[in-house]
Here is the input.
Amino acid sequence: MSKLSFFLGCIAPNRYPGIEISTKKVMEKLDVELEDLEGASCCPAPGVFKSFDKTTWLSMASRNITLSEEMGDDLLTICNGCFGSLVDANLMLKKDAALKEDVNKILFEIGHEFKGTQDVRHIIEYLYQEVGVEKIKKAVTTPIDLKVAVHYGCHLVKPTRERHLGSAENPTFFDELVEATGATSVDYEDKMACCGAGGGARTAVLDTTLHMVSNKLDHVIAAGVDCIVDACPFCHLQLDVGQTEIKKKFGKEYGVPVLHYSQLLGLAMGFTPEELGIDLNFVDNSKFIERIRGGAK
Amino acid sequence: MSDTIKTFKTSDLSPEFREEIFEEPGAEKITLCFNCTGCSSGCPMAEQEPEFNIRKFLRMANLGMKDELLNSPYLWYCTTCYKCQERCPQGVKNVDTLLKIRTIAVHNGIMLPAHKKVGQLVFNFGHAVPINDDTKEKRKALGLDEVPPTVHSFPDALDEVKKILHIAGFDEIVAEEEEKK
Here is the structure.
């Protein structure tokens, strides 16, 4: 059994705990042991904190990584933003001895040391590269007959310089994982488009970013899908809470269910929508849940 | 968009600003830009807000147009999707360079109040998005601990975060004006 330390980040535990519990449930079924990374903080958010001050960003990120090093485990994220921050910080510090020394001077003050012994993993690339599509297919007990709009999000695949996940414009690994559940990944216009939330933009210019996600939702609706499946709680929030904000501000209603991959896989493993927190979105998912119960399988 | 052509004197430009940007590894690659517009034409934010023009911003950076750039409200529109950086035929580090320009703005006291608030949340709680009552209920319903096993459950861990943020001077950066010495 493989073991990973489970880094929660902010939005999953503090807004969408369904993603947290679903990850625990599906990883257990796949023989991957997760141990909570106790005392971890915000990653911190890459676009915002890298924008403010690089030393701050690096010292907070490296503290989180050292917690994982102290447990002797690689660190698992379920969020593209956390992945972007932590994987970049980890690689920078492993490569740059002078930078590592600077950061360790700060970490010394709180009794930690960055050693560079562990890797940072994202649940999607981990499932694809370490668990594998075939093993996931075998773990599926109730194949899900849904048409899915896959949303990769940006920081899972970009910048490609250190990701090694192939094309950033036409990747397929996430679609393969989605189809392993029995679902169909439906192509849609401008599929790789950003949700608009990152870089502090959602905080700075909410309405403009809502127009961005509105474009995305238009394309998803045009493709006739049953739900969106994402890999990041921040995209998840922009796609889900964003729909309620668009309704309020611009009077347009979408009602598209948004699931994190861990939730889709959980359904295919036989967990109920309630056990996975699919009923806890800000958009009302009750019709979708009825359909799942009625056997979208 | 204005039709008037603005002129600048070279004495208005800041070579020091350009040098400061180049402290970011790879940022000097903005000198390789030949204005193909591959970056700005594919930008999802420019589709919504044409005033956000990454190509123009990096050209301004290369010229050392410090004041115009640091005070532009559009500096804060980039979502860091990295599409432009991936596409650049010259290997310009568009996003990394823009983040460095933002950092210079912040260290010059230019920061959006909403961003400052996010910074304060991280300093006070260790989370940019801290727990709330609504989510506590949701966590209980799912059989999770009401509060996650993060800094939220470990006060010593939060103290560690506060200490490193203080050493890095971040508490000063996000402090309200009246709190600053």
